[in-house]
Amino acid sequence: MARRERRREREEKEEPREELDERVVHIARTAKVVKGGRRFAFRAVVVTGDNKGKVGVGVGKAREVPDAIRKASDRARKAMVDVNLLGTTIPHTIQAQFGAGEVLLKPASPGTGVIAGGGVRAVVEAAGVKDILSKSLGSDNILNVVQATFAAMKQLQNYEVEAQRRGVAPEHLAPFWHRGEMANG
Known about the structure:
By secondary structure, the chain is of the alpha+beta class. It folds into 2 domains: about 1-80, Double Stranded RNA Binding Domain (2-Layer Sandwich); about 85-185, Ribosomal Protein S5, domain 2. The protein has 7 helices and 8 strands, in the order H-E-E-E-H-E-E-E-E-H-E-H-H-H-H. The protein has helices at about 1-15, 65-80, 120-125, 140-155, 160-165, 170-175, 175-185, and strands spanning about 20-35, 35-50, 55-60, 80, 95-100, 100-105, 115, 130-140. The strands form 2 sheets. It has a 4-stranded antiparallel beta sheet with strand order 1-2-3-4. Strands 5-6-8-7 form a 4-stranded mixed beta sheet. A hairpin with a 2-residue loop joins strand 1 and strand 2. Helix 3 (about 120-125) runs parallel beside helix 4 (about 140-155). The N and C termini lie far apart (about 65 Å). The mean pLDDT is about 85.
């Protein structure tokens, strides 16, 4: 009884959450074979972002779909990370892998739009990227593709830092439409 009251008080105390873009990317039905037959559960994959450079991915599992989505949403909020952006795109080309899912992300000039499929599109749009080219390589498992995209977004660095890491001049790594601004400024 006391536990229920504490939980109710905790829920009432929760401050209003900032406005985040939440997307349910995938819901899968799973089955566990038990003595009496099959027991079904659901797995939800949710991507959360503020459209200003923060994004998170969460996976929730429960016997009912709304509970799975709620769990995934809470985990996505807790897993949010800052992403380095260059205007409306990413600062440099990046490739990342999660399981057998592999994703290649390339910066795109302003006005290109988001050229990406399902899971990749959800992650990059939630992060606030407006122009990007992408290619999903390897597995087409949505969970692995989403996790690979999230891993790629976490690895993004300022292109000057990445150029130094690679041992090349920053002008060679900067997107071509940004090079003119470098020369002028």
